[in-house]
Design goal:
Blueprint lengths: L15 E3 L2 H6 L3 E3 L2 E2 L2 E3 L3 E6 L5 E5 L4 E6 L6 E2 L4 E6 L1 H32 L5 H27 L4 H10 L5 E5 L4 E6 L6 E2 L4 E6 L4 E8 L11 E4 L4 E13 L4 E8 L11 E9 L11 E6 L4 E3 L2 E8 L2 E12 L3 E6 L7 E4 L1 H12 L2
Antiparallel strand pairs: 1-22, 2-24, 3-19, 4-18, 5-14, 5-18, 6-13, 7-9, 7-12, 8-11, 9-10, 11-13, 14-17, 15-16, 15-18, 16-17, 19-23, 20-21, 21-22, 22-23
Helix pairs in contact: 2-3
Length: 364
Amino acid sequence: MQAPAQAQPQERAQPLIPLNTEEQHAFGIEVAAPVPARASLSRRYPGQVAVPNRQLRVVAAPQAGVVETLLVAEGERVAPDQVLARLASPELVEAQSNYLEAVTRLELADSELQRERMLHSEGITAERRLIEAQSRQRELATLADQRRQRLVLAGLRPAAIDELAKSHRLSSTLAVRTPIGGVVLEQMVDTGQSVAASAPLYRIGELAPLWVEAHVPVDALAGVEAGGLVRLPELGVDGRIITVGRLVHPEDQGVLVRAEITDGADALRPGQFTVVQLSTGAEPGAADGAGSGSWRLPSAAVVRQAGATYCFLQVEGGFRAVPVTVVAEEDQSTVVRGPFTASDRVAVGGVAALKAAWLAGDGA
């Protein structure tokens, strides 16, 4: 969580805390080098894994009928255009009959139009009869196209419709196919169940990449923006922020932050609850100590006194308290801004003893 900048004491030389090597060992004082921090991690927020909307499909019954066979179940992987189920549909038989009727009438209209053209060319019939025959033929061609399209919407393929027109063999069985490949996330019907047209049968999802969504408090959004890093610490998976919402949700006063997970998505499951940490940028400390950059230290290295924060820097003859500004508090570490270098050593163990010695020597 991003911490507000804290007030520092007036610039003054902090007294030396004299300690020799034996005394440091006796007090259990341990030191470590500060690590330049290019980014800081927030505290942990609850998140949930979701499938991107563009990768979800609900496969519905194209016609009313009875579920005759279910060929896949929840959790199975399917390929594009794979048959998922078969329906027994009386309405399909009726639609095929209507199409065949339109095709038959169109064939008759084609024959009549051909005959009228021949008679008109020989001067036997008037032009009016040719025009009427052309009009009937166009009208029936439109009707046949409409009824063919009705069969396409019902789930029949063009090759199957062409075969129907040749054989006139009706079928009540309808194959339901998936438009995308992926995993069956949900089966919504059972074998033998009657379903209406457009009733959902399966929910299919492509599971790479995935989304992780979390609600982040409004006051913790500073520095959170699209393109930033998101970490799932319990799974060792990272992602990138793609959305920072504008709506504050009234139930928790949180704002939706959505991240896309590409590498490591196979370790996640849709609907899974997890925890996330958000990364925000920081100006890293320079190796030569020029300026005052950001450094990551174990949280135990930072002490607070009189509204200010300090770290104990190892110097010749002991330690000296150095004022720092807390940039962010992470799970086990704290990002601070202070005048360190990568070669410095800061107390990370036995800090309570150092603080006591410091206050005693300072007369606090």
